[in-house]
Amino acid sequence: MKIDGTSISPVGSVQAAARVSQVNKSQKISDQDKLAVSENAQVFQNLVQKVKELPDIREDKVKEFSDLINRGEFSIDAESIAAGILSREEIGGK
Hints:
mainly alpha
C-alpha cells in the first residue's frame, strides 16, 4: 500500500475551512456581547486605583515623627489610645 500526500490534502482543506467558519461565527457572537459596568463600580474601581498609587510608607509622617522623637517632644497619651481601642471594641471594630 502506498500513501501519498495528495489524498490527505482535501481532508485538510475541509478541516481548515470548518475552523475558519467556527472562528467567524464566534466573532459574530462576540460583536453582540456587551459589558455594562454600573456607575458605583466605576467609582469603586477609580478609588481602588488611587489607593494602589499611594505609597506604602508615608515619608512625610515618618519624618514628622522622627523629628519629634529626636527633639524629645514626642509623647504617647496612653489614656486616649486605650479609649480608642475600647470604643472600637464596643462597636464591633477591630
